[in-house]
Request: fold
Amino acid sequence: MSRPKNDTFLRALLRQPTPYTPIWIMRQAGRYLPEYNQTRARAGSFLDLCKSPDLATEVTLQPLARFPLDAAILFSDILTIPDAMGLGLYFAEGEGPRFERPLREEWEIRDLDVPDPTTHLRYVLDAVAQIRRALDNEVPLIGFSGSPFTLACYMIEGRGKTDFAETKRMLYARPDLLHRILEVNARAVIDYLNAQIEAGAQAVMVFDTWGGILSHAAYHEFSLRYMQQIMQGIARSRDGELVPRIVFTKGGGLWLESMADIGVDALGLDWTVDIGAARRRVGERVALQGNLDPSVLFASPEVVRTEAGKILESFGKGAGHVFNLGHGVSQFTPPEHVAMLVDAVHELSRPLHAA
Amino acid sequence: MSRPKNDTFLRALLRQPTPYTPIWIMRQAGRYLPEYNQTRARAGSFLDLCKSPDLATEVTLQPLARFPLDAAILFSDILTIPDAMGLGLYFAEGEGPRFERPLREEWEIRDLDVPDPTTHLRYVLDAVAQIRRALDNEVPLIGFSGSPFTLACYMIEGRGKTDFAETKRMLYARPDLLHRILEVNARAVIDYLNAQIEAGAQAVMVFDTWGGILSHAAYHEFSLRYMQQIMQGIARSRDGELVPRIVFTKGGGLWLESMADIGVDALGLDWTVDIGAARRRVGERVALQGNLDPSVLFASPEVVRTEAGKILESFGKGAGHVFNLGHGVSQFTPPEHVAMLVDAVHELSRPLHAA
Reply:
């Protein structure tokens, strides 16, 4: 397992010089690509697609065949861990993820156990290994997990919500129970990410999709604290190569200073944050990943190029920026606009990296 | 029209000393109150309730009969303006607001016109006047409007969304059209709030419920700029009394510095912001209103008291804090918990205002 030929992504995460700003795109293997939809139709359900290492490898590589992206990301779901805990993940057609057996009773929470990734999540590790072989060291592979708090939201509610009222209710009325879930989740994420690193993931990202619904104090106590445990518990390197870590709390722009302190290499930013201001706040400590509004990709290629240029300019000269969207790419995005974005970022960023 | 007997709310907005921290609650006249549900059932629909000055007065006063709140807020909807523009506001049972005729065509946007509040929104002005008479100068009455951008979101999409993709699409693909809508909306809000002030509103608040979905740059260009126009266009005082202005952008915690600059007296804060940190950022320029997570009210009265105390302590000593939730009160809130909150804020804040 040697260094990938294109290591701009890994270098940027470690704030090392690169000739241009690397880019990958959250949900880059997704429904905006016709070839993805074809593979998914062959697979049956979304979950069947995740659980087949062959098909997960196929879709992981699809965006890389189209666009000169600087990283691949494991095709999987953020909710594989609670599924492995026995909660029964499924996807209702046209809706988001759901659990057959959400946590309703105190004894269910007491009985929660950390799943062994080498058995219950074997399919993920097999996919990581197979994708690494298929990538042939062209670009690095990102492994990932949902954050303990984000997993808990779905485990408690049984599905996505806008307010996660049951989770909040537990947080204020029975914080001991929520802490119990989060402790188990944190240990599960540590084991899971370590297993992904062992299987070949060259960087890891924790998606804290719902941490942004919390108050300032609750975010620190119920989300960030457990992500810090994860950073302490996962391998720093493998085969002598550092494995950079990224944490992304959607809606977490107010908390970047404390996020930068938990042992991460990079912070993901949603599009509400001015990336230049974020860099002034934390850019001496961590790299930044982001943060184009995915809606920009609905506009013309000219607008895409202009808006991408604004973000590059806002970050400014020098190392430590990985370009991305501020959220997953929409299924209604024209693939040509993604092509334009990738080219624009590569081209427009070169002067910012000149010696 | 003399000064209300309890003017703590008005004084706090102007950062003048008060004996305790005043409190009111967003959506304080709402579905968590059985008496509200009874009046609403009598009214027929939610919109019938808004459009009847008698019934709007009745429900506006209901929470004040229960709790020693320091302000009343006009019972109305944020979407009355587009309704008056002819878009046909209605409420599907159990769902949010919708428009029968959202803006679909360019000519519809070109044809948009500022409604005359004294005709099309007469029912609101009548309600303001009637509520003022019913309040008998006990506490001040807050008038309000949706922000130009928030109105535009609903006018374009026809209903609430989580991402407002059509609005974003227009923002990036046809910014000229969105600006046209926003200009009309800003003029409409100015006329509407001036008419409310003329009818007796003693403070005004602009609810920018959806500004927080925008990028940093887009927020300033498409939401804040038009709220600034409103602040420039509305009356500063009536009958020799200042009419304080509050602006609340949900999810706007990153932008407090620029929000404080548009001619407002106070900024509303959602619960993601640490109010003490917000005060250090802008507290020399504006008062702050907020910011308890409404979910705290699901917990026990003891937790409600503790969490309210934390916010009061975080703001700290001295003038310039109006206590509120960080969002509207949930319909599932036990009214006794609201009673506990109001009492706790009044009691726990007194030492913070001691000379």
About this structure: Chain B touches chain A at residues 162-163, 165, 168-169, 171-173, 212-219, 251, 253-254, 271-274, 277, 293, 295-296, 298-300, 303, 307, 310, 326, 330, 332 (CB under 8 Å). The longest helix of chain B spans residues 175-199. The mean pLDDT of chain B is 96.
